[in-house]
Specification:
homodimer; 4-stranded antiparallel beta sheet; 7-stranded mixed beta sheet; alpha/beta; 11 helices; Aspartate Aminotransferase, domain 1; 408 residues
């Protein structure tokens, strides 16, 4: 069942994506399996940031809004992301955070479905997806949030539903929703769909237009490797753009921001969902990450992810009988693997101290990101060994319990 | 009337703030008078960004949320900004953009004043201030935006006003509102106040708590020198924090974001106005700019600004009779000077081509930022000479007219 070192090295030697690892600056002595939370540093990001800081900000100063193309960056990087998620140029912009973009699109969708009051979502969805919907319902008394278990979603698509808002891949389990089927069902019921691609974009194949999706958002700092707190993106299908209006009517979404007129008039295209002035430094780092993702063959990525995930699950299950798989064993799934253990928090602390970086999610989940761009077969094989060592020696007993206020 | 070169050099030689110029990396051959739009590069920002990229992101990876203090950055930098605007620690956080923060606080204020429907603001306010209020009114049908001329504001503070939302310093004219008097009048009428400090923070003395202000927002990339599109800040007076709730209920504003529970529960303090994950690279650059501002004596800054502004107006008026002053000649004012000319756009293009960087604002305004941290008396004296040369030679006739879509 378990492979030996020679076997995993043979897999790495024949890996067509092996060269991508060199595009990232990963520290020695670390197996990084938390790219689903924060992607590592692309080597090109350093040079791009130096150029943005020294040449564009330092030398060019205000002139760089035109001369260095800063003003076009939200759309330019958005168009590159569009190619990763099955969208067309002009359907995606980079802006704000995932949370802010969820608010914009959920509010716009509710506004486009008068007489329907429900935002339908999944119980246990990523918290910000739930919180943003709750916050919107708190200011729009006509709106209700209905969060139901995953297997009850389709049954709740009634005539009162304005919007079905779901994470494509679940942040904890990696379970993947059937975007095509749920989009079809939602639209048949008269609702719009809003997909959160935070755990999908850059990790797995996404085909928004192939699924006839309406709206989507996603994260820049996970599988797109855009840096800590990178700007997020949003997608509005071309057919909806003239009709949907952002409640966050900031000047960058105006049809003519530099006319400085008193009346808001939304831009004709997806730019109407911009709001304030974007961080150029953050966009610069994100662009470097997105450029790498755009250079990868999506099918090769999916094939390697499947083999890495299979190897990791097989090795961990063979070595660590006290861990319980908390993710789908086979597709449809995203690109991380979760195991449950009552001492999950302390076990993860012990693993991190030994150079295997994953993360912990309440109440008992050890989460490991499988990122084929920079992880090899030997990496996940060694990761399984490290987990076994920590569990067999009960090394986690030296770790402290979880502290409030710390990122886990 | 006009000073000679020896006289302005004597002023520079005795300038107690002269050393601050060396903290910025300004290009040779440029007189930079657009710090009111984008502040220049602090030399410390480069090293701080290198550390954030190489050490924190590259080496520390996800661990840096705790180990490098990323999770505390919005509050840490907010507390430093608090010291610049007369706020107390715990009343300011860095988050999102000015536009997004305007939405959060305007919506929270309207929610706290049930039965009152009006957001009162100034006609000709900075566009995003108007647009955000209009966008809020579009989704909250009970809310109305009333934009009136500056001298009619007090008369409109009736029993229907929920919020008085004003820019402290006008982006075009530099005219400064009397924050204390208008806050008192608004509160006497039962309204809350929301001050946009974008053209104030880092430029002039601001005393939010001395004025008993309720709410404020401000920009990071102008006089705080935080880099292009730097994150913005927001202020909520301590007395309001438990009562006001952000409509943008993102996970970073949750009382316990890493508990990952399904129900939103706002953080007890000003952190409830955080939303999504902040850009750490953008925050890093902003912190470098804010540290410089925090090191300056506010009274020395104000004294030098007054002298620079006086010198610039005197020199330009003496040399350029076709320009009309479009700013207050004396206080109360902000830290930029505007002149009107029908060919303002082309004149500014000609000035920029000659190394004097200001900007243009519709319909006819040449705008010059007076930033005592890095501008000296000789700079503004030479700037006036350059303006005279361009006007006397009509050199602007070689410049093209304004192009749509370009930042001006």
């Amino acid at each position: 069942m378990s492979l030996d070192l020679a076997a995993v090295r043979a897999l790495d030697a024949s890996d067509p994506l092996r060269a991508f690892r060199d595009r990232f600056d990963l520290p020695d002595g670390v197996i990084y399996m938390d790219g689903n939370s924060l992607g590592p540093l692309p080597r090109t990001a350093r040079a791009a940031l130096t150029r943005a800081v020294d040449d564009e900000w330092g030398r060019g100063l205000i002139r760089s809004w035109n001369d260095a193309g800063w003003i076009d960056a939200p759309r330019r990087v958005g168009d590159r992301i569009a190619g990763l998620i099955g969208a067309s140029p002009g359907e995606v912009v980079v802006a704000d955070s995932t949370s802010v973009n969820l608010f914009k699109l959920a509010a716009a969708a509710v506004g486009a479905r008068p007489g329907r009051r429900v935002i339908l979502t999944e119980a246990g969805n990523f918290p910000t997806d739930l919180y943003i919907a709750q916050g919107l319902a708190a200011v729009l008394p006509a709106v209700q949030v209905r969060a139901v278990p995953a297997d009850e979603i389709a049954a709740h698509l009634g005539p009162d539903v304005a919007l079905l808002q779901l994470s494509h891949v679940h942040y904890k389990s990696a379970r993947r929703h059937d975007m095509a089927a749920l989009t079809t069902a939602a639209q048949a019921a008269g609702a719009l769909t809003l997909w959160d691609l935070s755990h999908s974009a850059g990790a797995i194949e996404v085909d928004l237009n192939g699924c006839n999706a309406d709206l989507a958002v996603g994260c820049g700092y996970k599988f797109l490797n855009g840096g800590p707190g990178a700007p997020a993106f949003l997608f509005v299908a071309a057919r909806h753009q003239a009709r949907l209006v952002s409640p966050l009517a900031g000047w960058m979404g105006h049809a003519a921001p530099f006319d400085f007129v008193d009346e808001y008039r939304p831009a004709p295209g997806v730019e109407r969902f911009l709001c304030g002035t974007p961080s150029i430094l953050a966009l610069t780092a994100l662009e470097a990450g997105v450029e790498i993702a755009a250079a990868v063959d999506a099918q090769a990525l999916a094939a390697k992810a499947k083999r890495l995930i299979g190897l990791f699950i097989t090795e961990v299950e063979a070595r660590c009988p006290t861990l319980t798989l908390a993710s789908p064993r086979h597709g449809p799934r995203g690109s991380h693997v979760s195991f449950a253990h009552p001492e999950g928090y302390r076990i993860m602390r012990a693993l991190i101290a030994r150079g295997l970086i994953g993360d912990f999610r309440e109440p008992d989940i050890l989460r490991f990101g499988i990122t084929p761009l920079y992880l090899g077969y030997e990496d996940v094989w060694r990761a399984a060994q490290l987990i076994q060592q920590v569990l067999d020696a009960e090394a986690w007993r030296d770790e402290s319990v979880r502290q409030a206020g710390r990122v886990t």
